């Protein structure tokens, strides 16, 4: 849990796919008026322009009256599974008890009329909970609930097969939305929630088959949990934990405090594509202690200004990245749609730093310094085996640690205009590096072993990229800052087929 904070030809870019949501071409981030030098991109502007629900009750639906407090919960309880409920226009309330949430039955559908709002009034903790599968929530605003830290308001218990579509989930504490297996979140507004827009976590095992498409994910982590619990690793527009198979497509992820998207601990098989990720305080994307992903055709701009500047002001030399791959890599032994981490066809424009590949020498099973305490890699079933003397020999030497390996960074466009970002140093870097040594004394990863491995032995490659601006490159450890020629030449031999124009990308 948490992270260690310390082409030759331009690829033709593809506009974001229309994914069943309203969109506005080239809409800028609301928090900045900085000009863009990149092609216009459509964004999922669903918070400002939500799709309207049905003005009349669907055939066979149970009508819910906003004038009767608790009407929705009562009618849910008295109706059979697979019932459709139509919420009339107005503000719907639950009973004035913090645990007065709705407990759907299998296959229930909750459909809001135009103007239908379910309001927790800062009294109720949860809106929808329980274990029922295949529940649908559509055209409904859910707001004002006060879920505790690390808990969620909608699908509180991470039930499977839910569909959240054309919904607005906003101004709640905790996570606006939790996720179960096979969950579909489409064309919805996840806005201004206290911790996460969505927390994809299921304590009983891997969460499989998650789709997040065409949503606007904006302004979350209003309670600023990383400041309240430093290093908690518990924030983001969306946070993914142990998700096996996720498609994250066509979303507008912007203005979140902290990271936009964060996959943390034993995630696998992600497709992150055709998103606009911009103006988040921290990284656009963190992929941490996880496996096998395709990250492609995203527009990534003006991210990491707040956190990047904070670290620079502390005289921290670590290249805190906008796309941060931390102890994550391609692993052919784990089934996925790719056996690498492929990062290609993206535009990264005027962010604080670019892509950093990092491997913390302490991130191995049973390490007392591993911040993912209690977890082990997906390659080791019995974590007790990751101890001396066995951990010093194959296969455990490799399998007991999360490795940044088989990362292929190709055909991307990196643009940096320092006058737009407002910096003179430490915002202009790519990196592949590790820290020195580790402990305890029985650790087999002492000295520079991990730094040498990530830099030269684990098949991490930049190639066929376009750089515009005064880019620098960090290799092996934070002290080795290279120019483009050094980066391309022996011993690093990175960015074959790439070009660099060192002038600011204005």
Automatic annotation (TrEMBL):
Q: Which InterPro entries does the annotation name?
A: Beta_helix (IPR039448), Carb-bd_sugar_hydrolysis-dom (IPR006633), PbH1 (IPR006626), Pectin_lyas_fold (IPR012334), Pectin_lyase_fold/virulence (IPR011050)
Q: What is this protein called?
A: Carbohydrate-binding/sugar hydrolysis domain-containing protein
Q: Write out the entry's keywords from A to Z.
A: Repeat, Signal
From the UniProt annotation, give the residues forming the signal peptide. Answer: 1-23
Q: Which domain of life is it from?
A: Bacteria
Carbohydrate-binding/sugar hydrolysis domain location is 158-312
């Amino acid at each position: 849990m948490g992270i260690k904070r310390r082409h030759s030809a331009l690829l033709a870019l593809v506009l974001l796919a229309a994914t069943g949501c309203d969109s506005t071409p080239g809409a800028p981030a609301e928090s900045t008026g900085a000009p863009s030098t990149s092609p216009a991109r459509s964004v999922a502007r669903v918070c400002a322009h939500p799709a309207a629900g049905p003005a009349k009750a669907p055939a066979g639906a149970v009508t819910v009256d906003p004038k009767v407090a608790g009407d929705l919960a009562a009618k849910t309880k008295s109706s059979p599974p697979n019932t459709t409920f139509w919420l009339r226009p107005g503000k719907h309330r639950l009973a004035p008890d913090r645990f007065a949430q709705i407990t759907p039955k299998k296959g229930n559908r909750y459909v809001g009329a135009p103007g239908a709002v379910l309001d927790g009034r800062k009294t109720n903790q949860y809106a929808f909970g329980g274990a029922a599968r295949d529940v649908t929530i559509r055209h409904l605003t859910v707001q004002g609930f006060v879920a505790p830290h690390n808990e969620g308001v909608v699908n509180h218990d991470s039930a499977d097969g839910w569909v959240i579509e054309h919904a607005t989930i906003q101004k709640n504490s905790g996570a606006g939305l939790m996720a179960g297996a096979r969950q579909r979140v489409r064309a919805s507004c996840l806005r201004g929630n206290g911790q996460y827009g969505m927390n994809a976590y299921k304590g009983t095992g891997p969460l499989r088959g998650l789709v997040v498409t065409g949503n606007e994910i904006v302004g979350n982590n209003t309670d600023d949990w990383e400041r309240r619990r430093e290093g908690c690793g518990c924030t983001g527009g969306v946070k993914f934990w142990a998700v096996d198979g996720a498609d994250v497509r066509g979303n507008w992820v912007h203005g979140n405090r902290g990271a936009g998207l964060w996959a943390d601990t034993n995630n696998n098989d992600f497709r992150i594509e055709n998103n606009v990720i911009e103006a988040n305080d921290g990284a656009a994307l963190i992929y941490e202690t996880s496996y096998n992903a395709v990250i492609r055709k995203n527009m990534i701009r003006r991210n990491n200004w707040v956190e990047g500047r904070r670290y620079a002001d502390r005289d921290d030399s670590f290249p805190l990245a906008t796309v941060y791959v931390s102890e994550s890599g391609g692993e052919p032994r784990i089934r996925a749609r790719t056996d690498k981490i492929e990062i290609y066809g993206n535009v990264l424009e005027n962010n604080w730093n670019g892509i950093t590949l990092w491997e913390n020498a302490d991130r191995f099973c049973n390490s007392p310094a591993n911040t993912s305490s209690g977890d082990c890699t997906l390659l080791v079933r019995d974590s007790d085996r990751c101890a001396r003397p066995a951990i010093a020999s194959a296969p455990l030497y490799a399998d007991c640690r999360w490795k940044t390996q088989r990362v292929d960074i190709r055909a991307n466009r990196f643009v940096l205009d320092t006058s737009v970002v407002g910096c003179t140093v430490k915002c202009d870097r790519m990196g592949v590096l590790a820290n020195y040594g580790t402990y305890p004394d029985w650790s087999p990863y002492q000295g520079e072993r991990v730094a040498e491995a990530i830099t030269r032995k684990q098949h991490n490659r930049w190639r066929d990229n376009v750089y515009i601006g005064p880019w620098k490159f960090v290799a092996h450890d934070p002290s080795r800052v290279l120019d483009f020629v050094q980066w391309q030449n022996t011993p690093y031999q990175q960015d074959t087929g790439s070009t660099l124009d060192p002038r600011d990308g204005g």
